[in-house]
Design brief:
The protein is of the alpha+beta class. The chain has two domains: about 5-115, no CATH class; about 160-495, Double-stranded beta-helix (4-Layer Sandwich), CATH 3.60.130.30. The chain has helices spanning about 5-10, 15-30, 45-55, 60-75, 95-105, 120-160, 165-175, 210-215, 250-270, 275, 305-315, 320-335, 335-355, 455-460, 470, 475-495; strands spanning about 180, 220, 230, 235-240, 285-290, 300, 370-375, 395-400, 410, 415-420, 425-430, 435, 445-450. The longest helix has about 40 residues, at about 120-160. The chain starts with a helix and ends in an 8-residue tail after the last helix. Bound molecules: fe (ii) ion (FE2). Fe (ii) ion binds near residues 384 and 435.
């Protein structure tokens, strides 16, 4: 009697049945000759001759099982699962199923009965099933791994911050921030007449050496261990230097990982001359997200070659990059909550109107991210006039360079230079504050990540998701009047959205 395992092997190759039948005949034949008897040797020769002409009958139980297996193969019920391997996946040999298989077998028109047996198609079905199962299994493993890492991270954060992640802590950090008040009025910053953007200007101080710049400015030796808010005369916070998280991993893992992934992105990407040499300097820059302006009829996602899109997607999904995004997003919400709320509302309105717009990071309110991949990301003085005029632009510095001798952020309108340690972030009004970096030393590497939103996005949303040229011809006189008033007062209203700070005595 065959075992279950032996029977399972049979169904994989129908030819085996014939071999087994042969073997069974031989077994019966030997049993009749007195295979186990010492006396039977004399008659072996005679009986062997008879066997060639008259085969002995096969065991009825064996024949029944062979029939069932044959039906299984022809009916295709054994093709379901080769990789299951468990007892629960054993084919059902119940009488009802056998009857069904038998009725199919009795029908001569049934194509499964006629050779050739489609063994190749059986294999394809198995392979497809296996692939599908493997995909599901892999995805489940990935989700599980992601959830596990997230849990570990949260536990680690809670341990290292002594459970201080709540609104109270955020308020406390604002209160504890170092505030510097400058003798300067934000009202006079060069913003466009509509208040949505900055004004395009050319570089004015490109020719100055490091020492010449330092001689003209005040140096703030910020080391990223505390929050620093720089205000105008009225106490309006215009620049936010964000302290690095207290998590010791920030310096041992996040920043090194940032450098690694940004360097890898530059090496693996394929860039045009325009992406490597541009008005902001001679370094590779790639922007991803959504934007508006420059002749576009409506906000749209940035476009990339297939290769660069993969590189950018790798960057966006990187854990260190996501933590940087989280840091600047929460920093902006903490230090400028009203403006943050405006960014959030605008982002939600635009994406609700057009769900295809890409969101780089789940919790970020910024529409676009530029990865400045170096190898020496150093910019001459400029304004990013296309960005939202009163809005923030978060800059994160990274790289292997001596931050006491290069890479500092120069804010020309404020007359200050801020030390910008690698791994730290500063939020500025990039559309209206002229800014640049001091050069780093030969052989050093510097990268940066900037997060921002175009001013045209806010204008488009303010018009009820229309461009000016589409909105104005159809607007009522009252709407036109409101349109003009809104633009004339936007900057003034925005100034009121900046949180005011008082320097500590
Ligand atoms: Fe800039």
């Amino acid at each position: 009697m065959l075992t279950r395992g032996q029977a399972k092997a049979i169904r994989l190759d129908i030819d085996l049945m014939e071999l087994l039948a042969e073997a069974e005949r031989e077994r019966i034949s030997r049993g009749e000759d007195g295979y186990n008897s010492d006396d039977g040797s004399a008659g072996v020769g005679e009986e062997s001759e008879d066997e060639e002409h008259e085969l002995p009958p096969l065991d009825p139980e064996f024949l029944r099982m062979i029939d069932e297996l044959e039906l299984d193969i022809y009916a295709g019920d054994l093709t379901d699962d080769d990789d299951a391997g468990s007892e629960g996946d054993w084919p059902d040999l119940s009488p009802s199923r056998s009857v069904h298989s038998l009725s199919m077998a009795a029908d001569p028109s049934h194509n499964m009965l006629h050779p050739p047996i489609p063994t190749s198609s059986l294999n394809i079905q198995c392979s497809s099933t296996q692939k599908r199962k493997r995909r599901v299994r892999n995805q489940a493993q990935k989700d599980k791994k992601h959830a596990y890492k997230k849990r570990r991270r949260n536990v680690h954060r809670a341990e290292t911050s002594h459970g201080k992640y709540d609104k109270g802590v955020s308020r406390k950090r604002v209160e504890e921030a170092e505030v510097v008040q400058l003798d300067f009025e934000a009202d006079i910053l060069p913003i466009s007449s509509t208040g949505f953007q900055g004004k395009r200007t050319r570089s004015l101080f490109k020719h100055l050496t490091r020492n010449e710049v330092l001689a003209r400015t005040i140096y703030y030796n910020w080391d990223a261990t505390y929050d620093l808010v720089i205000c105008d005369r009225e106490g309006r916070g215009l620049v936010y230097c964000l302290a690095n998280p207290r998590d010791p991993q920030w310096n041992t893992y996040v920043h090194p990982e940032l450098c690694r992934i940004l360097e890898k992105a530059r090496v693996n990407g394929k860039f045009t001359a325009k992406e490597m040499f541009h008005r902001r300097g001679d370094y590779v820059a790639q922007t991803i997200g959504y934007s508006h302006g420059g002749g576009q009829t409506c906000p749209s996602n940035t476009k990339h070659s297939k290769r660069n899109a993969q590189v950018l997607q790798t960057l966006l999904s990187n854990d260190a990059v996501q933590r940087v995004s989280g840091l600047v997003n929460s920093g902006y919400r903490r230090f400028c909550p009203e403006m943050y709320a405006e960014y959030k509302a605008n982002d939600e309105a635009l994406r609700s109107s057009n769900p295809t717009l890409r969101k780089n990071f789940p919790d970020s309110v910024f529409a676009a991210t530029t990865f400045n991949l170096g190898p020496q990301t150093v910019t001459p003085d400029h304004v990013d006039h296309g960005n939202n005029g009163p809005g923030g632009c978060a800059i994160t510095s990274a790289g292997d360079f001596d931050d006491a001798k290069g890479g500092e952020l120069v804010l020309w309108d404020l007359g200050i230079v801020i030390r910008f340690p690698p791994g730290s972030s500063i939020i500025i009004l990039s559309a209206i504050l002229r800014h640049s970096n001091l050069p780093i030393q030969p052989g050093e590497k510097r990268y940066s990540i900037t997060q921002y939103s175009a001013g045209a996005l806010f204008r488009f949303a303010a018009n009820g998701m229309k461009n000016d040229k589409d909105y104005l011809p159809t607007a009522t006189p009252e709407q036109v009047e409101e349109y003009i008033r809104e633009r004339r007062t936007r900057w003034e209203k925005s100034l009121k959205k900046f949180t005011t700070y008082t320097p500590q005595p």
